[in-house]
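__Record contents__

***
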Amino acid sequence: MSSWTGRRVWVSGCCGFVGSHLCRYLHDQGADVTGIDVSNSSPSWRVLKLKRVVPVLRNDLRPGSINVPGDSWVRRAAENPPELIYHLAGISHIHLAQEHPLKAWEVNVAATWAVMERAREWGSAVVAASSNHVYGGRVQAAEDQGGGTAGDGTGAGILLYTKPGTPLHPYETAMVPSDVYAASKGAADLIVRCYGRSLGVRACTLRHVNAYGPADPHVTHLVTATILGCLADPPRVTLRGDGSTVKGYLYVDDVVMAYDILGRRLLSDDPGWGSVHVTGKAFNAPGPVRSAKEMIEAVIAVSGRPVELVKAEAGAHDQTGAYESLNGTALRQLGWTEPIWLEEGLAKTWEWYTRHGGMEWTTKATRQIHPGL
């Protein structure tokens, strides 16, 4: 029997890419899962066959909505409060946060504060989605060379450099957000860990790199966009800028496993294994680091198709020059295994899109997520 069997778990942002995969996993493990989202469905939600097995409470979680008397979220919890909340809801697109900073504050920060207050009231544990972007665009780090104590929340093991091989200070592991999105996620990260350290809520944050994998409807994501280009007729992929932007990539199943480990730790009563080791802390989930050009070439290689590579100018929201490699030692010490090899993850993702209609499925998904397109 799974350790999740019968556990009451709520997932905010349940209809998103990672949220849908997390709900599917928890349901399959026997958890009593309830989703929370502004919508009660999404392309990812439907294709993962969650509509009839996981109920969804429609709510945007901001303080003005969850404090309304009779609200479905509050009413449901009063009847049977969740043991654990995975808080994944938020604005996840950097350019949307930059264009709508007040909305980013309301959704990413104020809503997180409201969730933590409810968790404190109900006695629920919380694992909240943070982001590797909280470290800022100038991050350079070597794996397993963190300056802070593993998982201590000061930076969860990451060094900052002005240029490769030149550390500013061995102890400089603080968050240095450089845009609205990163600042909002950093503020939310601090709130969650504050409740864990000073208000007695069993809570921690997960900072993972860019997730990719099956059922991702966002055509702006590099892996998805490249796969769709390879499936087009004729096959054509666009490389924006010089392709030198370097990022970490993590297969979605590895992200789910990271959430699984942190959630089970917070729910455990074992003093040698349980919540004392994760509460109030931040954990990194790193993945293979590649430039945009290298990722595009890797996807094309997996496709086995002759693809035309078209060069275009970098857009206003295309990042340049950032290098991010997180130290995942703290999470590995909790039992998180090495991520799926990049080539294996890309092969699984390619196979899924070819099996599910590729461009046709994603075009429908994009129109439903962004009706104006």
About this structure: The chain is about 40% helix and 15% strand. The longest strand covers residues 32-37. Residues 30 and 368 are 30 Å apart (CA to CA). The two ends are 46 Å apart (CA to CA).
